[in-house]
Amino acid sequence: MTPRAPLGTVREAPLPSAGSARLSKTQRQHVVARILGRHHVTSQDQLVALLADEGVHATQATVSRDLEDLGAIKVRAGSGDAVYAIPELPRDQRAPDDYLRRTLGEWVVEVAHSANLVVLRTPPGTANVVGAALDRAAWSEVVGTVAGDDTVLVVASEQVGGSELADRIRQVAGL
Questions:
Q1: Which of 9, 23, 95, 136 could form a cystine bridge with 99, CB 3.0-4.6 A?
Q2: What is the pTM of this model?
Q3: Domain 97-173 CATH assignment equals 3.30.1360.40
């Protein structure tokens, strides 16, 4: 019988061992975020090693993309070292332009507009990813987004309007 943790104790789910199953990108990025919250990580090579300690195989190139996708930045720690950190508030996490280009290019399949509104169609279950990427891009012409299952409603600023914003989104998405 496995001993139980005292009430109020939070146990993290064990990670699959390196030999049993590969983690999805989302699972791996969750582990990366957890590691950055626990350790002063000063380099991508150090992060690769810490992931390996948790049974997660990742290359430096993969870690680099994960850090970019997570919006990680380098900050000065109390020791004076520059360490990776993920801003806690989503509004502080500005997505890199390349992340937005990849997200729109991969998931947006149709763009329509009316007045100051733009409607983006995506495959089922992916609209929230597109909406979050637009929100994190911090475009001045985007007032906000509302995402459903396969549709994102983007509200354009009055200065720009839906037609111009739709054209910009099409250009970035490669449509």
A1: 95
A2: 0.51
A3: yes
